[in-house]
Amino acid sequence: MSSKTYAEKLSDFAVALRFEELPGDVVAMTKLSIMDNLGCMLAAREQDSVRIVADMVRSFGGIQQSSIIGYWDKVPAPWAAYCNGVANHSIELDDHISHKHSLSHPGVVSVPPAMALGEHLHTDGKEFVISVILGYEVTCRINRTVPPGFENFERGFHGTAITGPFGAAVLAGRLMGLSADQIATAMGIIGSLAAGSSEFKASGAWTKRLHAGTASKNGILAALLAQSGFTGPHTVLEGKHGFLNSYFGKGNYDTSVLTEKLGSTWEIRFIQYKPFACAGVIHSPATAALNLKNKHGLKAEEIAGIQIRTAQKMINNFAEPFEIKSKPRSVVDAQFSLPFTIALIFCNGSAMVDDYTETCIADENIRRFAGLVKCIPDPEINKVWPKDEPSAVIVQTVDGRVLEERVSCAKGSLEYPMTKEELIEKYTTLAAKTIRDDQISRSVDFLMNLENEPDISKLIDIFTTT
Q1: pLDDT band at 1 (very low <50, low <70, confident <90, very high)
Q2: In this prediction, what percent of the chain has a pLDDT beyond 90?
Q3: Residue 244 half-sphere exposure, CB side, CA atoms within 13 Å?
């Protein structure tokens, strides 16, 4: 009898997992991640990219199953997951895996499909938590078969877009009560629906935001197809023409991590939360810049020059070409610009959603300051980046002082984490863009006691109660 494929092993785990087997810290972390991602969805309501997608989906009509977060129209569950995935990823504040582990955003492909299906199926809180954990687990393990950033910097794929659909399919199968064989089939199907290019960085396009929505929607579609008897190859991961060989290339991946210590080491334990609304790898120099500004009470007009010491790959991807990165053409350009983010911190004192706007992009003072930022490759940082992310920010003031701040990691990292209180404050700030104060406090209470809730759809009732 032949041994089981990796899709079958992961599917067996997904079906067998029980809430009582989950460590307390894993459950607590999952609830914080659900809250963090919901905050992003709520705050993104007015983003043009979100409005366009929501308007398109609403124009389709169809059976009313699940809510578009922030708009509250009910649409078919796959399309709700699509809209909410796009929203979740539109403001660059969603959680991400530690760069010591990989470069991935599992939350945006786990919470939206789980929320859409959970609302439609009236899933209880424990099952909802399990499904989200499975989304993180499968997405991150597949992403982790290659070194951190390999799929992005070496192959040109957006890791979340190509590995996230597998996590979404598995969690959807779990919520729908599929058998292990059916979930493995859903994984086989999703292997032909996984896509996402990193070319968005060339022009500051919105397509990265689309990746999270597409992965979330397609995961549900794959589970629905498998439930109806549609077939898919169970060798989808390791097969000759499977995902790993096609996307990562033979010899570049390690399949052992797919099942190693499955059920004892949990991927969600490596999740980091964002205090800045920009690419996660920019957070280390952003942390150093904010520390330096606050420590010395620096104002932008006091600064004559600024130097950032970081990795060459960071500079290649987030500081070049300098004429564009210092004068971004769009909000996406700005979110993926190291010079512009540093300028925001010194000019505005923050780098949050309301700082990455067309108004700030056009601000001559911010653009002038971004032009002062010089990014220098550091040989020692090159050796360890991105698994370790040290940075140095050196400022020369107009009165001749030279001030320096070095950090070994970013705020929000595993070594320097955001606290539960900081995450609730972040959620409160983001959610306030769409819902009332009383709805915010009630939703926090609901989410922090999620395992005791009999019906996840009651969260939508909190959001929509007049």
Answers
A1: very low
A2: 97
A3: 23
**Residues 6 or more apart whose Cβ sits within 8 Å of residue 171:** 14, 110, 113, 114, 131, 132, 134, 135, 138, 219
Q: What does R_g of the chain's alpha carbons equal in angstroms?
A: 22
What DSSP state is assigned to residue 60? H
Residue 74 token pair: 């009910």
25-58 pLDDT tens trace: 999 999 999 999 999 999 999 999 999 999 999 9
- Residue type (1 letter), 399: D
Domain ranges, ordered by start, for the chain = 6-273+428-464, 280-407
Instruction: With beta carbons less than 8 A apart as the criterion, state whether 16 and 134 touch.
Output: no
Smallest Cα–Cα separation from 451: which of 127, 35, 111?
Answer: 127
Give φ, ψ of 393 to 5 degrees: -120, 125
Residues 167 and 97: beta-carbon distance below 8 Å: no
| Closest-CA residue to 91 (of 354, 426, 436, 367) | 354
Strand partners, 303: 397
Task: Give the Å distances, CA to CA, from 425 to 42, 44, 182, 439, 440.
Answer: 14, 17, 41, 14, 11
Superfamily of segment(s) 280-407: 2-methylcitrate dehydratase PrpD (3.30.1330.120)
**Residues 207-266: pLDDT tens digits?**
999 999 999 999 999 999 999 999 999 999 999 999 999 999 999 999 999 999 999 999
Residue with tokens 């589970």: 223
The amino acid sitting at 103 is L
Write 402-410 long-range contacts (CB < 8 A, 24+). 403/292, 403/296, 403/298, 404/292, 405/288, 405/289, 405/291, 405/292, 405/295, 406/288, 407/284, 407/287, 407/288, 407/291, 409/284, 409/287, 410/272, 410/280, 410/283, 410/284, 410/286, 410/287
Amino acid identity of 276? F
In this prediction, residues 284-292 reach a mean pLDDT of 98
In this prediction, residues 378-398 reach a mean pLDDT of 96
pLDDT digits (tens, 9 = 90+) for 268-283: 999 999 999 999 999 9
pLDDT at 163 over 90: yes
Alpha helices per DSSP H over 104-152: 111-121, 125-143
Tell me the β-bridge partners of 406.
392
Q: What is the mean pLDDT of the chain?
A: 97
d(CA 402, CA 310): 18
CATH architecture of 6-273+428-464: Orthogonal Bundle (1.10)
